[in-house]
Amino acid sequence: MLKEFTIISKMQRSNLFIILFLIFTCSNTIAQNIRVGLFSKQIVTDIQISIQNGKYLLKTDNLIVDTLKSGENLSLRLINQQFHCHLNDTIYSTDSIFSLISLNTNTSFFINHSNSGSKARCYEEDLIILYSNERLTIINKIDLEKYVSAVVEAEAGYNKPIEYYKSQAIICRTYAVSHLNRHIAEGFDLCDKVHCQVYPYKSMTPEIRDAAFSTENLILVDSSYNPILATYHSNSGGQTASSENVWISPVSYLKSIVDSASINGKNYLWQKKISLVEWKQFFNKYGISQELSSDKYLISEATRNKTVLINNTPVPLSKIRSFFNLRSAFFHTTLDGENIIIHGKGYGHGVGLSQEGAMFMAINGTTYDKILKFYYKDVHIVKLQTVNAIQNSFK
Ligand SMILES: [Zn+2]
């Protein structure tokens, strides 16, 4: 904690006292809820809901009209610009908002609609349904940590070490809290698709839930106390990439590092064969003559540079990767008759945390904070309330 505050030593003393007061009075007492748009890329005009667990209040606009308990079903349908809610033999109508509000702690429901093309999904806590522009907007209002558990489960999968789940939970939470304004015009904070983070159903794995709640409210920040862009990929191939060599801008905490933990992963090495004719045609787009001898097209050493020189012409490695659909931009090449053999390392863009490297470290006893600080340079892991208190003190 003391180390964290050395960063803000330039702040005015009065601000620091306010921040300290807020942190020690607010930490661990605020459960943050977020609103996630469900079925967010689909046009929804009807919904079927089944209560899985607990009791709910049913409200139309702000009026309580009924209660529901486990096993009860509800259907909502748009008819003549009103939406009608069928519960047992009763029909409730509104032209603006329906909500299901949890009456106890472990509430959950199944939800689906006619055009989803998939099975009903199960979510926890509250449900809000808005009507506008002849479609329904479906919003799950949920505790941040339960949301984080569900996203980590969808992203990281099952049977992974707990310290790895903790590092993924902090990455997920950092991303979520720094993108809360993305869908404000639609009435929610984050969507349920890859655009925000995939949120397909509630978390069902106790270990993942423990990982989220044991790191409750922790996020990654840079030296200015701004949440970081915590990018990650499958396997670094033994060396991560600097952000400016893959995208455009340099970022202080996304710097290339040697990552020996990743050489143990299943995505460490790969190979791909490409015809020499196709290979030469690609480089011809950069003004490189197709008449050059074949050995002039070879890349002798895998690097994490931005470009590679072919006959003294710089060619972006990321363009070679995307054109030939390669697993990574970290490779060297050899000749095999009329073909080029690409010998690659790693999987993904290579910037930030390597998932397979982080898993290897976690299995071998490295804790989540050390894993995160290994892959993200000079970052701090702090409570969300700390960041909010600092930002509010400067308003
Ligand atoms: Zn989104």
**What is the end-to-end distance?**
24 Å
Question: Average pLDDT across residues?
Answer: 90
Counted beta strands:
22
In order across it, which strands form the biggest sheet?
A: 4-3-8-11-12-1-13
Q: According to CATH, what is the topology of the domain at 35-142?
A: Tumour Suppressor Smad4
| Main CATH class of the domain at 35-142 | Mainly Beta
Strand content: 25-35%
By DSSP (H or I, 4+ residues per run), the number of helices equals: 11
**Share of helical residues:** 25-40%
What's the overall geometry? elongated
Q: Radius of gyration over alpha carbons?
A: 26 Å
The name of the CATH architecture of the domain at 35-142 is Sandwich
Largest pleated sheet: 7 strands, mixed
Low-confidence stretches: 1-29
Bound molecules: zinc ion
Layout of helices and strands, plus pairs?
Elements: H1 2-6, H2 13-26, E1 33-38, E2 46-53, E3 55-60, E4 63-69, E5 73-79, E6 82-87, E7 90-94, E8 97-102, E9 108-112, E10 121-124, E11 126-132, E12 135-143, H3 144-156, H4 162-177, E13 190-191, H5 206-214, E14 218-221, E15 232-233, H6 243-246, E16 269-275, H7 276-284, E17 307-310, E18 313-316, H8 317-323, E19 331-336, E20 339-345, E21 353-354, H9 355-363, H10 368-375, E22 380-383, H11 384-393
Helix pairs in contact: 2-11, 3-4, 3-5, 4-5, 4-9, 4-10
Bound molecules: zinc ion.
